[in-house]
Specification:
This protein has about 150 residues and is mainly α. Helices cover about 80% and strands about 0% of the residues. The chain has four helices and no strands. The longest helix has about 80 residues, at about 55-140. It is rod-shaped and about 125 Å long.
Length: about 150
């Protein structure tokens, strides 16, 4: 009885998932009603499953169709998951590359700022020496005047 209930639930779920109508549900119920459980299965047989030869051909076809549909959906889901993982890995690689470029740009900027600071210090020192020379020249120290 449990096997029949599981098959019915699976058929109903499949019919609903694929946009099935009440007619599809009626067809499922007809298939299940036609395949009455064997007395030895209802009493709890050792393995609990009938061989394919012992099953109703219509029920067997429905079960095989359901299994094929489930397998196809599982394969599609696995393919989608692999595609999603590949897309994630590609996006992560792009992000890591951007992070590396940003880090290098930051290092380059910091080096440029250090060079700029050093150039400014040299310029300020040169300017201070020049101003001192101009003041000394104006004060009469001709050795500090610029050659003419």
């Amino acid at each position: 009885m449990q096997k029949t209930t599981m098959i019915m639930a699976t058929l109903v779920a499949l019919a609903m998932a694929t946009g099935g109508t009440v007619q599809a549900q009626d067809r499922v119920e007809q298939l299940l009603a036609a395949g009455k459980p064997k007395p030895e299965l209802a009493a709890g047989a050792a393995d609990g499953q009938a061989t394919n030869a012992e099953q109703d051909p219509a029920e067997l076809r429905a079960t095989q169709a359901l299994n094929a549909e489930i397998t196809a959906r599982n394969d599609l889901a696995q393919s989608q998951e692999r595609a999603d993982q590949a897309a994630f890995a590609a996006e992560r690689a792009r992000w890591e590359e951007r992070q590396a470029l940003n880090a290098q740009a930051r290092l380059d900027w910091e080096a440029s700022m250090r060079a700029n600071d050093e150039a400014r210090r040299r310029w300020e020192a040169d300017r201070a020496r020049w101003e001192a020379d101009v003041r000394a020249c104006q004060a009469g120290d001709r050795s500090r005047c610029a050659p003419q």
